Amino acid sequence: MFLEPGSTGFSNWGFVWRRSHVLMLETLLWSRRHVLRALGLTTMLMIPCRARARLQEDMARRARELIESLTDAQRPQVLYPFDADERRDWHYFPRRRPGLSLGQMTAVQQERVWALLGAGLSEQGVEKTRDVVRTEAILGELTGRRQYRDPSNYAIVLFGDPASERPWSWRFEGHHLSLTFTMVPGHGVAVTPAFMGANPATVPKPHEQAGLKALGTEEDHGFRLLHSLSDTQRATALIASDSFGDILSGPGREGRLQQRVGLALGDMTTAQRQQALALIETYVENVRPELTQRELERLTAAGLDTIHFAWAGSQHPGRPHYYRLHGPRLLIEYDNTQNGANHIHAVWHDPTNSFGQDLLRAHYETSHRKSQ
């Protein structure tokens, strides 16, 4: 697919959608993956080595600066071994969680947490994260439960040592937010699972922030794609008359959805595929551009035509609805059912690289070969 004159976006993808060109590009990418596999570098794909190294160095530096600001009493709360069970224990409910919360930090420490977030997230991603936290404060005001809906109750936790050459990870998490980054030196950065939610999805009147939508683009692009489909296509995409009430691939259930259902991107028109890619980019562009590019290349190499778009529930905004994008290396779920369809849960997974499992596999294989 060459973009039509006057069309917008999609500069990250750099591929042609005509089927013959897609096949040719996928063949080239697949061949390159075989070369990289021989070098033990399969998952790095096309990221320029210098850019990848700079990103990891920047993230490690900001993590070290955060650690240096911690007191002796705070360090055990923040620092865990890389192989700790807590590394995979993510959630988006209010709960006790490992790490140090913003409310327990000094102003300098909070600044360093946001600096670390800026090392992994794009400007868009940082702004959405701030909006999720703002929305939590608004929820406390609307419900009269300010102590429970506390915007300072978002915690940072690190796994492993960012000063070493070994894998390490960090997570920033609280109600309706769980962001995980896993660094595997020499192999790359994993960025999923990544969860964002919002309650209220749209801040109601007469609140002074009325109209604020932390995840408005996720909803708007979803409906735009749905409404671009023909009746026949929509019948294929619709997998249930009612929404599911929540995402299905939540904590501990990341691998629950195995079968891809709905309408394949390969069965869409050029304009519809452009809209589907815009929806995917809404999630993938929450991370730094270097990471976005790598994720899009992985999706392209796995076959974009095989990604399926599925819908459940109402086809009109303001009523309970759900959608899913599911491919070999992509699972996005979005649900807006609760509180009168004004409460969003949205998650992005790479089923092959959750918590960096693909990168870690390559790392351990490379280490094993070197030790022989």
What does this protein look like?
This protein is an alpha+beta fold. The protein folds into two domains: 42-199, no CATH class; 213-357, no CATH class. The chain is 40% helix and 17% strand. The chain has eleven helices and 13 strands. Strands 1, 2, 3, 4, 5, 6, 7, 8, 9, 10, 11, 12 and 13 form a 13-stranded mixed β-sheet that branches. It is globular and about 60 Å long. Mean pLDDT is 89; it is low at 1-11 and 15-47.
**Shape, please?**
globular
Into how many domains do the coordinates divide? 2
**What structural class should be given to the helix and strand makeup?**
alpha+beta
* Alpha carbon gyration radius: 21 Å
For the record, give the distance between the C-alpha atoms at the N and C termini, rounded to a whole number. 46 Å
Nearest-integer average pLDDT = 89
Report the sheet with the most strands, covering strand number, pairing sense and barrel closure: 13 strands, mixed
Number of helices: 11
* Beta strands, count: 13
Q: Percent of residues in helical segments?
A: 25-40%
Question: Unreliable stretches, pLDDT < 50, 5 or more residues?
Answer: 1-11, 15-47
Secondary-structure element pattern, one letter each: HHHEEHHEEEEEHHEEHHEEEHEH
- Determine the strand fraction and express it as a percent band: 15-25%
